[in-house]
Amino acid sequence: MQPTASNAHAELDDALLEGLAELAVRVGLNLQPEQDIVLTAPVSALPLARAIARAAYRAGGGLVTPLITDRDMTLARFEHGADAGFDRAAGWLYEGMAKAFEEGAARLALVGEDPMLLSEQNPTLVGRANRANAQAYSPALAAIAGFHINWSIISCPTEDWARRMFPELSAQEALLRLAEAVKVTARLDQSNPVAAWNAHNTELARRCQMLNEARFDALHFHAPGTDLTVGLADGHAWLGGANEARNGVRCNPNIPTEEVFTTPHAARTEGYVRATKPLSHQGSLLEEIEMRFEAGRAVSARAARGGDVLRDMLATDEGAARLGEVALVPHSSPVSQTGLLYFNTLFDENAASHIAMGQCYASCFEQGERLSKAEISARGGNESLIHVDWMIGSDAMDVDGVHDGAEPVALMRKGEWVRS
Q1: Which residues on adjacent β-strands are paired with residue 228?
Q2: How far is Cα 416 from Cα 74, in angstroms, rounded to an integer?
Q3: CA nearest 379: which of 394, 361, 405, 403?
Q4: Tell me: the pLDDT tens digits for 362-419?
Q5: CA distance 399 to 228
Q6: How many CB atoms lie within 10 A of CB 199?
Q7: Is there a contact between 216 and 238 (Cβ–Cβ < 8 Å)?
Q8: Quick check: helix, strand or coil at residue 193?
Q9: Model pTM score
Q10: Element containing residue 38 per DSSP (H, E)
Q11: Closest by CA position to 138, among listed 389, 373, 309
């Protein structure tokens, strides 16, 4: 059963909202003078959206345009909408977003809705709606995946999300538990959060430099249920933390972030892999995912829960069954150390090493900003309408860097870095 809103509305501390807003504007986006923001948020995150608007205008930003979604209106579609409507999406909206990005706007997404909102809806309808939305979103996604603009995603603790994570607690108690976890993982518990993020970004950059200098041909993952070799794209580049977008602005795309990541070769993944955490994917929970890859393609896939959604996702297009990202995250990350399942990929992917099905990031290539789509494809970059991360790391995971014809190089043992 889905949690419903309580009569007594739980509220967030103003200091947390202002702290998250400052991080979103100064660290996440690194908003530039007079730069516009396209801001998406669920209605439950309006307190943070309002705080962000205030912070953006104080920082000298341009126009903040909010696009708001609502849980009850979303559910109304699945409960009362005509069947044909599930193959449609608001393409005109995404075309407008793409135009805003072309004209220099930044993109900021607030997430905090109930991650399992659609878990009891018809999975076929959910899959059709997701596919139509992915197709319509592609013009706007191109600017994000290509890192043409400064963009960021940050989470807002909300009552719906908190009650999903802590169903045994009252609404206020659950929200306080979630808010404290968000505070810690966003480094707002430190005396100078902006300085803490600067130091963290420096450490992630150091790891990227080591991996870029090593020029591994592949990574090998080994753990219970996993024996996977992920070939890396030709001319791949490792990124992590703050990076410079093509518009010259250095930003943090994700808050929190603990990963360093790069682009796999679409045709060079072999072996089998088992998820270590459930995946919350657009309203459905996928548990105990297992896949087997041959020549880069997932040739078999199953899930103990959400199998239909998984199959629909992999059938989105030709590239949906191939990898677009591989990321390394230590088990000791602050997100992992909270010991919580967030049902939210932004958080859960930063608790564990992970892979992503679908679209690669053009920025994860040497001089990627100069490469055409055809050149990215020739180097092994994958193309798809989707990009879905799922977690494979744990305290039992070993990771080696592989050079053709040479002994493997230990990178991680039992989920922790051994080479820096």
Answers
A1: 221, 271
A2: 41
A3: 361
A4: 889 998 878 999 999 999 999 998 999 999 999 999 999 999 888 999 999 999 999 6
A5: 10
A6: 11
A7: no
A8: helix
A9: 0.85
A10: strand 37-42
A11: 373
